[in-house]
Design goal:
disordered N terminus, alpha/beta, 434 Repressor (Amino-terminal Domain), Rossmann fold, 3 domains, 348 residues, 6-stranded mixed sheet, transcription, 6-stranded parallel sheet, 15 helices
Length: 348
């Protein structure tokens, strides 16, 4: 009978991997720990030796030496229903995962919307459990970034927090897209085609993304020489249902509106349903532009003109910035802002 002791004696070691690869023990250690200070040839030799020997790092022993857990958390301040229903979150996870594949870091995902979820997540987010944290879909009053800063955990935010839009805001590491610029481009497109009564369905105003897209709308309306009419502004929470309700409200207030910029494609999808039910033709009577360029934009009727945001790249940049912070690398700029682009389809 093979005992646990004899099995453990036969377990491949770091030295065995080094001997098989023809390199030093330190080189193997650097490869296992994801260090970039290894030549491509040596890395390939070590990886081949690991595969041939079936070497598995002893994570508990490594943690004692390196003070690392080899885990990072992606915390989303939304419900599970929204997390798994909205393509934005899937794109972020794809981007993050693609970068972490090149490192020893493992990703774990958590929702933090309900009080119970928040309590569990806050209890787990310590340097005994994770090496760093990615935060997504933050609302303005969320204390989590400050808590993690006090704990000394490297943290990167997905999206510029609302507080960062104020002049006296404290610096934070974040990756965002040019939300205000994308909104301006959408409204300028509408004014350039003769639309004059341009409404908007804005996102939540306790989120940086909601504030920035509304700001871009207002800037473009002013530049076009139109006054800001509060009746042409309604609000949603990025869901399809909120877009349906907001569009209904806008039609009640301003039945002569001829265009609407919607701060998210799901809300725009709901707005299209409302316009159709009200007998308004799109784009003949009312032009509609969304934001995200999500797959739903191409399936809409008519296909939705939308502002493209590079969600997968946003996830990749978040992961790269976090890995650099965990490693203690010098970071020239803690902020990354990605460009947006208008994608023209039939709705506008």
């Amino acid at each position: 009978m093979t005992t646990q002791r004899t099995r453990s004696l036969g377990r491949p070691t770091l030295d065995a991997v080094a001997a098989r690869a023809g390199v030093g023990r330190g080189t193997v250690s650097r490869v296992v720990n994801g260090s970039p200070q290894v030549s491509p040839e040596a890395r390939a030799a070590v990886q081949q030796a690991i595969a041939e020997l079936g070497y598995v790092p002893n994570r508990a022993a490594r943690a004692l030496v390196t003070q690392r857990t080899d885990s990072v958390a992606l915390v989303v301040s939304e419900s599970g229903e929204r997390l798994f229903a909205e393509p934005f979150f899937a794109g972020i996870v794809r981007g993050v995962s693609s970068v972490l594949l090149e490192t020893p870091l493992q990703l774990w995902l958590a929702m933090a919307q309900s009080p119970l979820e928040r309590e569990r997540v806050e209890h787990h987010l310590t340097n005994q459990h994770v090496d760093g944290v990615l935060l997504l879909s933050l609302h303005d009053a969320d204390p989590l970034p400050t808590l993690l800063e006090e704990r000394g955990l490297p943290t990167v935010l997905g999206g510029r927090p609302a507080r960062m839009l104020h002049p006296d805001a404290q610096p934070a590491s974040f990756v965002d897209v040019d939300n205000a610029g994308g909104a301006r481009q959408a409204v300028e497109y509408l004014t350039g085609r003769g639309r004059r009564r341009i409404a908007t369905i804005a996102g939540p105003q306790d989120m940086g993304v909601g504030l920035a897209r509304l700001s871009g709308y207002r800037d473009a309306v002013r530049t076009a020489g139109f006054g800001i009419n509060p009746d042409l502004i309604a609000y949603g929470d990025f869901s399809e249902e909120s877009g349906t309700a907001a569009m209904r409200l806008l039609l009640d207030r301003c039945p002569d509106l001829d265009a609407v910029f919607v701060a998210a494609d799901l809300m725009a999808f709901g707005a299209l349903h409302t316009l159709r039910d009200a007998g308004r033709r799109v784009p003949e009577d009312v032009a509609v532009i969304g934001f995200d360029d999500a797959p739903i934009a191409r399936r809409a009727d008519p296909p939705l003109t939308s502002v493209f945001q590079p969600v997968d790249e946003m996830g990749r940049q978040m992961a790269r910035l976090l890995v650099a912070r965990i490693r203690g690398d010098e970071i020239p700029a803690p902020h990354v802002v990605l460009d947006t682009q208008l994608v023209e389809r039939a709705s506008a």
